[in-house]
Amino acid sequence: MVAVNKTLDRKTQSVNQPEARKTLHFQVIEKTFKNNTDSDYTEKIRDLGNEFDYASNRDYYWGYPELSLLYGTPLYDAASETQRLALNHLYWVGNYNHTAVSEATTSIYNMVTNGVFRAVGGYETLCRELDFETEQESYHIRTFQKIGFKTKMAIVGKTILGNSEYGKSDKEDVSGWLKLLIPQPVRDYFISSKGSSPFSIQRDKVLSAIAKTMLRDKKQYYSGYLRDIEERGESIPAPADGLGGRIAPRYWLRFFTIHWGMSPFMACQYYSLRYTANAILKNQEYPYVRYFRELEQKGEHIPTPTAVSYYHLLDEAFHTTISQTLARDTYKDFPKPTAYEKFISGLIIYKMQCSLLSGLSGVLPGRCVYDDQMLMIFYYKLLTSPVFAMEKREALDWLEKCVCQEHEGYHVGLKYHQSLLELMRRLFGRLDYQWSINRNMSIMAAGGSIEKALPKNTEAFKRFSQSILAQDS
Questions:
Q1: Which of 124, 242, 373, 404 is 20 to 30 A removed from 461 (C-alpha atoms)?
Q2: Which CDD domains match (predicted)?
Q3: Which residues 6+ apart lie within 8 Å of 364 measured at CB?
């Protein structure tokens, strides 16, 4: 039954800070590590992924109908039962494709911060838990990818959900009349078609120097993981996709990563950001758990993806506990944050609110940002796929009805928004070092408005529609 390496010997750990073992949060970490390594949820997830067959699951809803793409829109109301099943399945696939990308990012930052805690000493159990979590994530990711690929190929015949909706790029672009005004040598300095431009390389060096200078009294804690990367001449890691890639441009993420990998306080602060990913996942995943339990109680067939969601939430509950404990309590083991550390931690969460939690979608339940053109590209592809087989004009007309008119889908999205807001305030309201706007999740709260979402989403649709129609001219 053993798929995850459970040879992490809890009996031989050494603790350099005896007083730490007396604290409640240290005991929580110990208990969480024991329970996590004793559970077999990861193995169940692995086996379910290996055994998944779409044909055996295609005739069942994998979650409540509201957990479907386009739910509550005029198009959903007009869709056939076969199309509604496909939308329900594709919602699961899209959600867990995004989760897989985010968990890959989590694995990187587990290693970054782990290096800091090892350098501090006395947190061996925590380090082992983070190592174990990283190994678990690899099994989660593979299962999500297997189910997602088989499902997409069966429904649309091509992987239209393959690209993360949150993808970002570092490439700068200069177009139109600016090309005539800016000399070629200047453009070559700022833009490169062969990788990083001289400007971006210099920018990263400057930001790195600022971070290391401001944290110079913490240099003894610099993560061995980051040190090894730099010694190999490689760039500091920064995600391009998933939740991490949505927060800020990659050069900002590299800047933040140095802080998370150098200061014990900032390493703990990172877990308030990881808690955001945990909360978003819980907010979207817990309804699958309720659905699983209802089917189980009725003795009805439980689709494989529904079971994966159920066991994944049980696995992730351990990870969420660690995120909360580090972000809320463990940081108090270390010297109080400096004014600079408070500023950076505030800036990170402020950017997170603006990029991840500042709006409301009309077509994707549970998405707490406005509908952008990248999301509309995905839906346009879906409407012109074999699921709906629409022509260009028809697809745009239906998309306009779904995005630009108030409908039930907006109200379902608002319900998920309010649920997530409560989860976020539960943690951030207790972080006394955070800015008031972050403790109250003020930007997120302001974004939970259908009245604000409709004009913003309508404007995004107009730009998208014009770009599609311009292809005919």
A1: 242
A2: CylC-like
A3: 69, 94, 371, 375, 413
The first and second tokens of residue 268, run together, are: 């703990």
Measured at the alpha carbon of residue 169, what is the angle toward residues 273 and 358, in degrees to the nearest 5?
45
Instruction: Dig out the tokens for 455 from the structure.
Output: 């004009």
Backbone angles phi, psi at 189, to 5 degrees: -70, -40
- What type of residue sits at position 90? L
What is the domain partition of the chain in residue ranges?
Answer: 20-472
| pTM confidence score | 0.88
Calpha distance 395→31 (Å, rounded): 53
For residue 417, which of 344, 360, 345, 456 has the smallest C-alpha distance?
360
Q: Tens digits of per-residue pLDDT, 106-135?
A: 999 999 999 999 999 999 999 999 999 999
For residue 443, give the nearest of 348, 361, 359 by alpha carbon: 359
Q: Rounded to the nearest 5 degrees, what angle is found at the Cα of 32, between the Cα atoms of 30 and 37?
A: 100
Asked if 73 and 401 touch (Cβ cutoff 8 Å), the reply is yes
CB atoms within 10 A of CB 198: 12
Spatial contact of 426 and 407, defined as CB atoms under 8 Å apart: no
Report the C-alpha gap between 54 and 148 in whole angstroms. Answer: 10
